């Protein structure tokens, strides 16, 4: 999941450097969303893993 966030972040940076503002904004938004979902899933797995041990 974090890999997808990094991929979209790189796409956003390349698009921003080339001047495609619409594409850069969309890729940055997707990267941010994937990152947030990844962090939430990590925290859920962290808390549920502690209860089993």
Automatic annotation (TrEMBL):
Coarse class of the primary localization is membrane
Recorded hits in InterPro entries, A to Z, give:
DUF1328
Q: Please give the superkingdom of this protein's source.
A: Bacteria
* Pfam families found in the cross-reference section: DUF1328
Give the UniProt subcellular location, in the record's own words. Cell membrane
The UniProt keywords, alphabetically, are: Cell membrane, Membrane, Transmembrane, Transmembrane helix
> Where does the sequence pass through the membrane?
29-49
Annotated Gene Ontology cellular component terms: plasma membrane
Annotated membrane topology: Single-pass membrane protein
- What protein family does this chain belong to? Belongs to the UPF0391 family.
Identify this protein by name: UPF0391 membrane protein EBL_c33740
